[in-house]
Amino acid sequence: MTIAIVIHVLAAVIWVGGMFFAYNFLRPVAGKLLDPPQRLPLWVHVFGKFFPYVWIAIIALPLTGYWMMFKMFGGMGSAPIYIHLMNGLGTVMILIFLHVFFAPYRRLKQAVTEQNWPEGGKKLAQIRILVGVNMVLGLIVVVVASGGRFIGL
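and the corresponding structure tokens:
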């Protein structure tokens, strides 16, 4: 159980923390200092380094989460509401990531390869919105996970 908890928490911290850093710190600085021919390839490379960790997280989080839920509560039927909230929000986050990875990120890479900066900017803007949504959802999950049982969820 301890190993599952550690893996679960580390995966969540890496994913949510990475989004928080990229969205709140890297994005505004890159937008201010770099023109599209430098900024867009930067993002392609940053995502190229970050997304493999997200893939690991979206595999590790459900596996460890369901394992712990069945071990601790015997299944979903007896799990408290905060577990269901984590599960539901986590599923939405995974679906958003899958969309980002297979649609706007793929198109951003293509635009950068073609040096089509206006199109790349549009795709990066889509990613920014979706990462912003996922970051907020991730922060809500952190609140629910850390405090849900104490506030009666």
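(Above: one complete record from the training split.) The chain has a mean pLDDT of 97.
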